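REQUEST ID: PR-0412
SUBMITTED BY: lab tech R.K.
PRIORITY: routine
TASK: structure prediction, single protein chain
INPUT:
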Amino acid sequence: MKIPFVDLKAQYESIKEEIDKAIAGVINNTSFIGGGIVSEFEIAFAEYIGLKHCVACANGTDSMEIILKAMGVGPGDEVLVPANSWISTAEVVNNVGAEPVFVDVLEDEYTIDPSLILAAITNRTKAIIPVHLYGMPARMEDILNIARQYKLKVIEDCAQAHGASINGKKVGTFGHAASFSFYPGKNLGAYGDAGGIVTNNDELARHCRMIGNHGQLSKHDHQIIGRNSRMDTMQAAILKAKLPYLDQWVQARNQVAQWYDQYLDEDIVKPVKVDGYYHAYHLYVIRSPRRDDLITVLGKEGIGCAIHYPTPLPLVKAYEYQGNSKEQFIISDKLAAEIVSIPMFPEMMEEEVRLVSEIVKRFHS
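STATUS: complete
OUTPUT:
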């Protein structure tokens, strides 16, 4: 039996009628950029998150970069980011002219280690970008306490955490603003690139909207230098059709995770549970001291898998200029050699989870 890493076709088939209707509506209306559908999705997603504003944009990288620019982060500033994340978290800082300062992560939770943040703060630090990695919320209470003490902006990277929460409060509502990616494979995914900014700050939302639409709020009224980062109508229509199913899908992901927890051996390092934290399980990540060999075995058995991520951000070639060393990021470097993401999607059947688990168990026996 072949089991894909993610099965977007299965998701489409489960809500085919709604998706087809949404796509047909956009084509019939011939409104492909902007329009009422985008606004309707923004309102619906803001309501889902529990904030006043959602500003739709072209992708989740743009959304973080736009937030930084709207906050005035730029040349001479520093922004703290976790050492284990997708490169967007760091490159957006460079792209506004600031410098990312990497902080190692918690070994069990994989998110930024609050105990290491203080040592990374300088008089140039302007913001922290905690990433809710794999669907696990970062330690927001500790992060916010530090941010308040040093008057730092907090921008949540929620690209992998749609539907996650801490004590019932959704991720994306803790910081000054948050960035979401709607890349197709995300918990709430479009059929192309798309992203969104959420915030309760009226002026920040207004500024973000202007930046993403050529510096204008109304046509030809260019008040600032902006850019083109708009969510196209087709993606908004698809996301609006999918949004009512998001909680159901996250619950299904949690069920798949429970099955993995049950069927994988106790000595296999699995995602950790934290009291009050609702994991969105965008990814189910395990660890193996012989990770590369395990990936080879899974591939031969037709099991999809991936590494998130094979190199800590401070050690990738793009950041060689910083002169970082492995010794500075011991946990992230260790994780990069051991982590592997195994199949995780809402439509997975228990028998599929059992099969993947048996292959992993046989490998480690």
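NOTES: The first strand starts at residue 53 and ends at 57.
REVIEWED BY: pending
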